[in-house]
Amino acid sequence: MDLRIVRAGWKATLTCALLSSVALAGAPMQKTQAPGFYRTMLGDFEITTLSDGSMPFNVHELLTNVTPAQLDTDLARAFLNEPIEFSVNAFLVNTGTKLVLIDTGTGAAYGPTVGKLLPSLAASGYKPEQIDEIYITHMHGDHIGGLTSQDGKAIFPNAIVRVGKADADFWLSESKMKAASADDKGAFQAAMAAFKPYIAAKHFQPISGDVELVPGVRAIAAPGHTPGHTVYLVSSKGQNLVLWGDLMHVGAAQFPNPAVTIKFDTDSAAAAASRKKVFAEAAAKGYLVGGAHLSFPGLGHLRADNGAGKNGYTYVPIAYRSVP
């Protein structure tokens, strides 16, 4: 055996070991996430969940019609601690002829861990000017903040923007803003600013009643959280997806007990009634569901499960599937 070859091999092995040791010891933690998008097919439609990020959420402070002890039990069952991490999701529906965005995230208003819709949209392969239609579930800031830039310009210049007429009549009303408490006036101002460039461009069209907006996408009134809160039923080739906005906020508490409400509800009793109705239909018909505040990618199914609580449900997240 040639000793030169042995020595060369030994030196190469030693060098690799030393380099590996140095690299492992010195590699810094990155502390970042990739831009978030997830795709699945619904019949002939392509559905893309877009992550706007996540933020802390104080369950005990905000949820109502539930005892603190029950919330402790619910959080423990789900391996969660206060504050929980609260996802903010939007959904992109490509019907083949229309590109429809449902909700737009927080924009710049809620801090550094959210407001990531545009990077997620770009990573998914789309540009804001490609969006044809935007359907808003309701006019709270974490659903409309991404409509408009900080200098007041429309981020989606070619999109028609639609929202339930009862929400538009409420949040865009100067008289209702003047009558609101000091703490609530900011929500009215944010809504007016978000929609202003679309109204000026005549790109704003309120929704009246339950109606198909484009082939395969239907608006369904689900009031309570806000006066015009709307869910959207997406249907293709016999498959159905219901996108429910803020019909629910905290699955750990509201799946086992849909009667749990939240301080942000305009009408808590109506919100609970809408939630119970939509939950029951989704479970009975096997609909795929998409939640703005379900953990990303926020897609799954509901199974009626009285063992989870009186008239409760179990949420089954969609299985991850790679795209060829």
Give the full name of the CATH homologous superfamily: Ribonuclease Z/Hydroxyacylglutathione hydrolase-like
**Percentage of residues in strands:** 25-35%
Using only CA atoms, what is the Rg? 23 Å
Task: Specify the overall morphology.
Answer: globular
In short:
The protein is α+β, with helices and mostly antiparallel strands and 324 residues long. Helices cover 32% and strands 25% of the residues.
Describe this structure in words.
The chain has one domain: 4-Layer Sandwich (Metallo-beta-lactamase, Chain A), CATH 3.60.15.10. It has helices at 3-26, 59-62, 68-77, 117-123, 141-144, 165-171, 174-179, 182-200, 251-254, 268-285; strands at 37-42, 45-57, 63-64, 84-94, 99-102, 133-136, 160-163, 211-214, 217-221, 230-236, 239-243, 261-262, 288-290, 299-304, 313-317. The model is unreliable at 1-10 (pLDDT under 50). It is globular and about 50 Å long. Strands 8-9-10-11-13-14-15 form a 7-stranded mixed sheet. Strands 1-2-4-5-6-7 form a 6-stranded mixed sheet. The protein has a two-stranded antiparallel sheet with strand order 3-12. It starts with a helix and ends in a 7-residue tail after the last strand. Helices cover 32% and strands 25% of the residues. A hairpin with a 2-residue loop joins strand 1 and strand 2. It is an alpha+beta fold.
Tell me the layout of helices and strands.
Layout: H1 3-26, E1 37-42, E2 45-57, H2 59-62, E3 63-64, H3 68-77, E4 84-94, E5 99-102, H4 117-123, E6 133-136, H5 141-144, E7 160-163, H6 165-171, H7 174-179, H8 182-200, E8 211-214, E9 217-221, E10 230-236, E11 239-243, H9 251-254, E12 261-262, H10 268-285, E13 288-290, E14 299-304, E15 313-317
Parallel strand pairs: 5-6, 6-7, 11-13
Antiparallel strand pairs: 1-2, 2-4, 3-12, 4-5, 8-9, 9-10, 10-11, 13-14, 14-15
